[in-house]
Amino acid sequence: MKMVSYYTLLGMILSAIVSCIFESDVNAWKLKHNMELILIVLTAIFGGVIRPNIQVWLSRMKGPLYMPQFKPFGIAFATTFGGCFFPNSLHYGSVIAASVIGMGYYTILYGEFKGDEDEKNYDESSDSLDKKIPLLQEKMEEV
């Protein structure tokens, strides 16, 4: 948890430095009571508090490979909401690239699931002599 905190703090400091360099107008930094402020607050609440807690809960309940399955859906939802509610435009190249990335991501997850199943089948079918023993444990048994 400390590592994530330091990573976030360092990212915030570097972002502030770069932002100050590129936007030196003080009036641009003032927050107004409009849709931008609501968006900032909701992003902080959902992105920093609710989403990580749900991810940890689901990882404990279903296993570590359950949550990564939904990453491409997050890309699709962000693209959809960006096109509907904000002045973002979609281009064919962006849609094709997102589709290719999503298919590649699911291919890797499929390989991981298959690897886990093969490993379970191997462990169940092998004799006790064929099981892998860590090197240090093997040495201690000999002594």
TrEMBL record:
Note the PANTHER family from the entry.
WAT1-RELATED PROTEIN
Q: Could you list the residue ranges that cross the membrane?
A: 38-58, 70-88
Q: Cite the entry's keywords alphabetically.
A: Membrane, Transmembrane, Transmembrane helix
Which residues, if any, are the signal sequence?
A: none
Keyword flag Transmembrane helix: yes
Stated name of the protein: WAT1-related protein
**Keyword hit for Membrane:** yes
Please tell me the species this chain comes from.
Answer: Trifolium subterraneum (Subterranean clover)
Q: Gene Ontology terms, cellular component aspect?
A: membrane
- GO molecular function terms here? transmembrane transporter activity
